[in-house]
Amino acid sequence: MLVMNYRYRIYPNFEQEQQMLSWLETCRRVFNYALRERKDWINSRKCPADRCSLQSEYIVAADTPYPSYYAQKKGLAVAKKENNWLKAVHSQVLQEVIGQLDGVFTSMKARGHGFPRFKKFGQYRSFLFPQFKSSPIQGRQIKLPKIGLMPIVFHRQIPDGFAIKTVRVIRKHSGWYISLCLVADVSIPEVPPHGRSIGIDVGLSYFLSTSDGEQVDRPRFFDKLHRKLELLQRCLKRKQKRSNNRAKLIQKIGRVHEQIAASRLDWQFKLAHHLCDQAQMIFAEDLDFRIMAKGFLGKHTLDAGLGQFLNVVLPWVCFKRGVYYAKVDPNGTSQECPDCGARVKKDLSTRIHECHECGSVKPRDVASGQVINARGLSGVQIASGRDLSGYQETDARQDRTKLEELKSNLEKPALYASA
Predict the structure, then answer these.
(1) How far is residue 60's CA from residue 70's CA, in Å, rounded to a whole number?
(2) Could you give the CA distance from residue 69 to residue 96 in angstroms, rounded to a whole number?
(3) How many distinct helices (H) and strands (E) make up the chain?
(4) How far is CA 288 from CA 18, 104, 317, 327, 329, in A?
(5) pLDDT tens digits for 184-236?
(6) Rama region for 343: left / alpha / beta (φ>0; ψ in -120 to 50; rest)
(7) Region of residue 341 (left: phi > 0; alpha: psi -120 to 50; beta: else)
């Protein structure tokens, strides 16, 4: 099954916009209440038996069960009978808020994170309709339960063979958007290794260096608008809280941040297509950029968007273009000579690779890209000898035919899904 998300701009009228703002505030209150209920139950089981806290203690009966996902959903149905403002929101929308909180707690236990934070006023910015009996698209409009019809901008049409599974309404500083989750009942095979390969090394001195010697300068999207943001935020400091002028200024600042993010994403997609034009296999390092974002170069790391490019943009473009994409072990890629394999130690200030064994001299990032390419090809050969043996050619040909038909639908879609 193939799943894709398409985002479109919508234009609700004044009554619909006020209704959706009210829904967001209700979802925020339900989220905070469910979070407080879980934290109180957990903290009540943590207090020492021989002493009390100097501030307060959480007292919950010993036989009170843990407020799990299904228990809180049941409690939500009971609360609707006592609070009319909960009835104004679609029932499944509020249930998805409980599901979102349960997913956060599951991730917290798995990764060892702290408790999720309470949402302040205006911080809850989206709600989800989890299912539809039929397509909500009606011509150039979309019909949402309890909200009604509103215009939608189809800057790209929904491909044939895809059905709308969920709809998420998103509030941004630039306006209202919806994210359509599209599903198609097709089986897409993974792109097999084939053709010419390149290795890429990402960094901050150069955004990207390939094994062919090409080096791409790092764009500075945030730095270009940093002065403008600095002036706007300085004005924001003098505004009275909860005033209309403060709200307008916050919206203006948010639009600048959206401009920065959109420019970065557009540039990364163009770069990904440029790389796919050069080779049929692309190898990159398997790095955790969250560690780099916490250091003294964190601002520049986040501005470059290295993790977004390697983990989101490039894999998706490679999938659409039929290019094989894989990651390799990053340990020691910059300390190894790509020509003879000797270990050449160098710190971050050394930007030229000079091998004392074979005399190779080249830019450090280019040498690292060549090492990454060699490791990727080595891994492909090992995997091909173990996993790809016995792969039936007829099945592969049928799968590739389905993939080509699906890609042609994505490139030349129908007008849009019928209602």
Answers:
(1) 19
(2) 10
(3) 13, 14
(4) 41, 21, 21, 12, 12
(5) 988 888 888 888 999 999 988 899 999 999 999 998 999 889 999 999 999 99
(6) beta
(7) left
Tokens at 142, concatenated: 């979309």
Neighbours of 372 (CB within 10 A): 28
The β-bridge partners of 177 are 9, 170
Distance, CA of 144 to CA of 265 (rounded, Å):
29
* Integer Cα distance of 182 and 168 in angstroms: 12
Q: What angle do CA 402, 310, 130 make, to 5 degrees?
A: 60
The radius of gyration of the chain's CA atoms, rounded to the nearest angstrom, is 26
HEC string of 17-84?
A: HHHHHHHHHHHHHHHHHHHHHHHHHHHHCCCCCCCCCCCCCCCCCCCCCCCCHHHHHHHHHHHHHHCH
Quickly count: other Cβ atoms within 10 Å of residue 254's Cβ: 13
With a cut of 70, which residues of the chain have pLDDT below it? 47-49, 52, 54, 57, 383-419
Which residues, other chains included, contact 208 with Cβ-Cβ below 8 Å and sequence gap of 6+?
200, 201, 202, 215, 216, 271
Q: Which residues of 109-139 are buried (b: 16+ CB within 10 A; e: fewer)?
A: eeeeeeebeebeeeebeebbbeebeebbbee
Spell out the residues 6+ positions from residue 351 whose beta carbon is closer than 8 angstroms to its own.
Answer: 205, 363, 364, 365
Q: Which domains does the chain have, with CATH numbers?
A: 2-184 (no CATH), 197-387 (3.30.420)
The two three-digit tokens of residue 399, written as one number: 């799968």
Q: What DSSP line would sit under 321-381, residue for residue?
A: HT-EEEEE--TTGGGB-TTT--B----TT--EEE-TTT--EEEHHHHHHHHHHHHHHHHHH
Q: 268, 218 in Cβ contact below 8 A? A: no
Residue entry with tokens 């709308």? 164
Contacts of 116 (CB under 8 A, 6+ apart): 35, 101, 104, 105, 108
d(CA 331, CA 349): 18
pLDDT (0 to 100) of residue 191:
87
Helix axes 314-321, 244-278, angle to 10 degrees: 50
CA pair distance 297, 27, nearest whole angstrom: 37
CA–CA distances in Å: residue 205 to residues 201, 219, 220, 385, 408? 11, 10, 11, 38, 39
Phi first, then psi: give them for residue 98, nearest 5 degrees. -65, -40
